[in-house]
Amino acid sequence: MFVLPPPPRYPISQTTSSPNGGTVQNPVVEMSNILTHPSGPEYQLSVGEGTYFLQDNLHLATPPPHPQDGPIINPNPLATTPAPPKAGIKLSICITSPRKSLLPLYRQAAPSTGSNLGTYSIKEHEKESRSSHDTSSDGATPHFPSSSTSGRTPIFGEDNSALTPLAGKEGVKRKKPKTNLVKSNSQFISRVIPHDQLSKRLQDHNAEGIFVFANIDRAYQWLDLSSPAPARAQPLMKILFAKAHMLCHDINPFTKGPAHIDVIMGASTGDIVWFEAYSQKYVRINKNNIISSSAISEIRWLPGSENLFLASHMDGTLIVYDKERDDAAFVPETNPTPTTAHIPNGTDSDPHPLHINKSVNSKNQKSNPVASWKISNHRILAFAFSPDSRHLAVVSEDGSLRIINYLKEQLTDLYTSYYGAFTCVTFSPDGKYVLTGGQDDLVSIWSIVERRIVARCPGHHSWVTAVAFDPWRCDNRNYRFGSVGEDRRLLLWDFNVGMLRRPKAASIRNRDRASISSYAPVSRNRTESTQVPGGRLRSTSSLSNEGADDDELIEHEVESRTMTATLPPVMSKVIDEHPLSWVGFEEECVVTACGEGHVRVWRRPVDVVGAGEG
Amino acid sequence: MASFFNRMRSSAGTSSPSSGSSPTKKDPNALQITPLEKYLLDAPPGPLREDGSDKFWGLENFGNTCYCNSILQCLYYSVPFREQVINYPKRTPLESVTTTSTGQSRIDPNAIILPPNHPSLTPARLMKQQSQGPNSARTAGGPPAAPKPEDKEHPDYKKRVAQARGPTISMTYDNTAAYGMPESLFTSLKDIFEALLAHKSNVGVVSPNKFLEVLKRENEMFRSAMHQDAHEFLNLLLNEVVANVEVHSKKLVVEEEEKQKGMNGSADKTGFEQALASAMPKAVPGNTGWVHELFEGTLTSETKCLTCENVSQRDEAFLDLSVDLDEHSSVTACLRKFSEEEMLCERNKFHCDRCGGLQEAEKRMKIKRLPKILALHLKRFKYTEDLQRLQKLFHRVVYPYHLRLFNTTDDAEDPDRMYELYAVVVHIGGGPYHGHYISIVKTQNRGWLLFDDEMVEPVDKSYVQNFFGDRPGLACAYVLFYQETTLEVVKREQDAESLAAAAKAAGEASKEPVGLGLKTNGFMNGIQHVKSAVSPTTPTTEETNGYASLDKALSEPSPIAEPIPQSPNEVTALPQIPTSGMPNEEVKSKKERAKEEKERKAIARLSARQEEKAEKERRKNLEIKRKEMVKKVDEDTKAAIEASKASKVEEDHKVAFENGTKEDPKEGHVEPLGGLSRFKPTSKSFRKPRIFSREAGKEEPVADADEDVASPTGHETAEKPEKYKHRFSSLRKKGSNMKLL
User: Fold this and answer.
1) B573 CA: distance to closest CA in chain A (Å)
2) Which residues does the annotated region (Disordered) include (chain A) (predicted)?
């Protein structure tokens, strides 16, 4: 045995950067972004359709800590003070031009094989046709329209006359926030750094080009990924907040245009900022935590709404805000008892109902919040809206996936992870499937129509942090999606319902599997009714029309590993040195982001053959 | 007890200045609003729960014994383990725990309060002693550049406070007579557990003197005062407990037999052996197998010879799993990797019985029987060829609160079994030869607690996931304890948790508009403010003058502790006042108060030291006597063990012979000869010591001669419980031998 001098038990900071493979590093203080173009086989992704090349590696500068915070010289590893919640970099991508014929050809070429498969009209989403004045499309991603037998999708809160005057201002010039960001002397904002030639760069911006909004630490950057190379690295605008860290943000696809981008941001302090990029003006919502003091984990504009957005607070509430309404101290309007209508008969009192603290139908709509729902006391980590603008998928730290019909404010399904928390969720472009990623290292595929788990996808070596569909490579039966995780890997998956690999034990009875996954007798009847031939393929909207069925809450049991189909990835590669936090698919590229500030743009294969050099 | 309430209370975020002033440690009624108090009211009548689940005691550090403290805490809060330790062979009545055979009281629930004006102490000295704390020998790891105004968040400070507050139990005695067992690690463990149960206080500090004494006496590798490996200790302890319990149960059976034979005369040798043979199967159920039942699982290694395609299976028992780590991976992935297929080729070929000779083969390890308690050892200490020594890996390895195992065999029972994380042993430090261990443990009803030697502190659930390995501070999870649970239990717990959280949130909302960051130990904060107000006046130059002994007294077992006699109102009232914004007057009065308090504490310490000396003398004498006794007992046990071993060997031969038709006895030796297991990704715990030889000696084709000891029983699929004794104990010996190399 060696005898070494007694070393420090609580190390000093110098040792933290010691030779530990760069895992324990002092944060890099870099003031400006760095753009590099590394090439080589490790920067290529080989998939069936060709090779993706790394086009841009943009390292966003992590801002130094706010002067008031001061540097931590000697981190006490055992300090028990809970740290404020942090999130890796998330991106909001915006292409301002309206999309003309977004739908790739192959999708039309894909034959609708089953007769029970409603043929999709290539018509854009309903709201497109509705608002002819609107120059913007409904988003950077094409939507499969839910076969619109039911006509237009109802709008959230449309039955409430108290909401209409504000919600339905169409044709009027877009409203801007009030406060000028640059001139603001708010203590909330530490500094705003617009680019020197901001107006010139904006003029030069190609309408087809990609704007990216990114949060990193206490900074928020607006980037133009389509501008020429040296300038591309530098943000059009950088906002430094004093204490708040933006954890999530979203761009309103409904209101965006050549001179208007509505961004909504949610902060670790619970604050919300509505920011209009072109005018550089902003408004704070939930100021001084008047409505909720809990950090915001996810924030999204309500589909098709100009003003309303939904924020998930970490105390387990979902709150709908109006960007133009004033805040007021909020007291739950309804009685705290659960809405018993959602409890499936036969089971004892349900511990997981949807508490409506304030209904969207409340007549008191003078101020925010518009609606508030408590779904649990566990942290909500992410949520996603269905493309048909009816459903909401919410995942939380306790490993639950909830499907909520938010138009009716009803919880319809409650699923549980194999184990561990769910960290991310997304809907398939046609709204039939939901993807979740979680701390069980799995991506799970859930069928909204059949209300069951479809498959679990092992392949990650650590927790999954983000999942996204690639709408340009999805058709009626085949789906491409990607996932990234703490293992620094990007995984691509091709999912085809018919091609799922069943475990041996389950192969005989896989058609009945839904009945295994739900234990309430009520739900079994329900499942059987869905199991009529072709029922599996019913479209979402027809499901939503069966109102009565939807009202039941089904609590789904966790399905055994031996009973669930698994899906292997088509591509798995370590693409960054740091745990990844975001992935998104654009028409020409795949974008990833890691927790340390690396935004990477992967160009899609140019041609089928001879896709050439890096 | 009350002080703990204070902590818990403030940790629940309800300690606003106004509420903080009313409840005191002597006035538990004032705490009724807190969740903790509410829980106590719901609990079965009586001040304390019988099962010891509401005892939150720190363990004294005797200089680098944190490896022991951290593991002991994890084991104590493993409910089934604690219950078994306490109830085997039978539970001792409380009275006999609290008093010695001579009627002397062992535990003084009401610690002696020193006269506040002890002559030998002056305030100035107290201050010196105070400021000297972080530099004392025990706490050498404190940041060298520790700021003069003492950091109240510093663990060393908190430890001293814990020690000073007491009560303390010095585990210098043993109760082996009551158990009818010779002194062993098991009995000293049982002593500690029972003493905790017997004590009236919820909180305090235990000094595991005896336990360490036995440990060091019987295990050379733990004898030095150096930093030790917590996982090795866990493994040794479990194996010891197995051995001790089995020896005892065999003894019991023998005694029984002898009683029955009674008049037949002396217990002749054959009778003895017969008794052993017949007793073994009987002795197991119910009692002796409990460590196995809790911690043991079965691994199946499937080896497929690539020449003849013959698949051979071999089962091995494990008490914990050691998994290799990858950069940026999860525990799930590590376990998957553990079971990945592995090629046995080149120097590591497999000796195939079918083809006869060394062949290339594919091998994979899967879990066939899932343990109730899954102890996962993350192999953070890896041998690096360049440096010729172990190095710590700071890979980020994430661990979820719940776990299921993917690497089970197809025929495994309950392959979807759910596990929940209930304890984490964290290693802090840059390398394997030094550092510090702490543990974070989930208690049955009080959430997660941080155990850092003497200090116990409630922590947020999210705190548990601070030790993935990538954060500054060099603290990494090292051993993870997962226990069996079900989804229903988990859901129920989550609901309860969320209710509590809601209640807490409500409380916070009403009292503290900004709840963020105030969940820290409010009580400690109070102390901090007191200290920080005083410390600037500390004469720093004198601090090294001859008062080191004062600190030393702290680290010695001190039977006397002083519940701070001062009205705690002041202390608890302080926390919420920010230091910076404190009005001057208040500072002054606080200074005075703090001085007084310090004085008292220091007096307590000093007299503790004096008392200590006397104690030591007395103990020495006792010790000598006791050692003689122990020697005798030990000899007896040894004889018994020898006898049992002899019979065991015979039996093994028999078994092997009987199995001969089905299974070539040679197969058992195939592995070691072929060196098959050398490149196994696994290091099941009892193999752990072999890491040294294995990785160091990669080039040697036959490095595992020691495995011969293990394998004769290892290859049998249906292992009889009595064989464990042989294997584990022999392996343990091997382990310690290896250490000496």
Assistant:
1) 20
2) 1-22, 113-178, 519-550
Half-sphere exposure of B80 (CA within 13 A, CB side): 16
Q: Are A271 and A289 in contact (CB under 8 A)?
A: yes
Identify the active-site residue in B231, B292, B436, B529. Answer: B436
The residue ranges of chain B whose pLDDT is under 70 are 1-50, 92-153, 166, 262-288, 498, 500-741
**Inter-chain residue contact A421 with B430, CB threshold 8 Å:** no
Q: Identify which of A584, A575, A395 has the alpha carbon closest to the alpha carbon of residue A482.
A: A584
Please provide residue B242's backbone torsions phi and psi, each rounded to the nearest 5 degrees.
-55, -50
Give the three-state DSSP class for B451. Answer: strand
Angle at B217 between CA B211 and CA B222, to 5 degrees: 80
Interface check B154 vs A, CB under 8 A: yes
Q: B-chain residues within 8 Å CB-CB of A10?
A: 141-143, 154-155, 428, 436, 473
Which chain A residue's Cα is nearest to B431?
Answer: A7
- The pLDDT score that the predictor gives to residue A63 is 86
Whole-number average pLDDT of chain A: 75
B153/A376 CB distance under 8 A:
no
Please tell me if residue B149 touches chain A, with a CB cutoff of 8 Å: no
Kindly tell me the burial class for residue B736, based on how many C-beta atoms sit within 10 Å of its own C-beta (0-12, 13-18, 19 or more): middle
Q: Are B94 and B489 in contact (CB under 8 A)?
A: no
B519 → chain A, closest CA residue: A81
**Residue A293 · residue B509 · CB < 8 Å:** yes
Q: Would you say residue A397 lies in a domain? A: yes
* Contact at CB, A82 and B144, closer than 8 angstroms: no
- Local confidence band at A257 (pLDDT 50, 70, 90 cut-offs): confident
Count CB neighbours of B178 within 10 A.
18
- Comparing CB atoms, the residue among A1, A76, A463 nearest residue B153 is A76
Which residues of chain A are within 8 Å of residue B141 when distances are taken between CB atoms?
6-10
Q: Which of A3, A9, A560 sits opposite B140 (nearest CB)?
A: A9
Does the beta carbon of B459 lie under 8 angstroms from any beta carbon of chain A? yes
Which phi-psi region, left, alpha or beta, contains residue B711 (left: φ > 0; alpha: ψ -120 to 50)? alpha
Is residue A458 domain-resident?
yes
Gap between the Cα atoms of B468 and A487, Å rounded: 13
Q: Which residues of A touch B516 (CB under 8 A)?
A: 82, 84, 269, 293
The answer to whether B343 faces chain A, any CB pair under 8 Å, is no
Q: Name the residue with higher pLDDT: B607 or A381.
A: A381
Report if residue A531 sits inside a domain. Answer: yes
Q: Can you give the CATH number for the domain in which A542 is found?
A: 2.130.10.10
Q: Quick one: tokens of B305?
A: 């010879």
DSSP label at residue A339: -
Active site residue B66: yes
- The amino acid at B277: A
Residues in chain B closer than 8 A to A488 (CB atoms): 328
Full domain range(s) for residue A516: 380-596
| Residue A484: partners with Cβ closer than 8 Å, 6 or more residues away | A464, A465, A466, A490, A491, A580, A581, A582, A583, A592
- A340 part of a folded domain: no
pTM of the model: 0.71
pLDDT digits (tens, 9 = 90+) for B252-281: 888 877 777 765 554 454 555 554 444 444
The per-residue pLDDT for A159 is 73
Domain count, chain A: 1
Q: For B519-583, where are the alpha helices, taking DSSP H only?
A: 522-534, 548-555, 568-573
Instruction: State pLDDT tens for residues B382-397.
Output: 888 877 888 888 899 9
B377 strand-pairing partners: B322, B479
Q: B584-659 vs B707-714: helix axis angle to the nearest 10? A: 70
Strand-pair partners of A489: A574
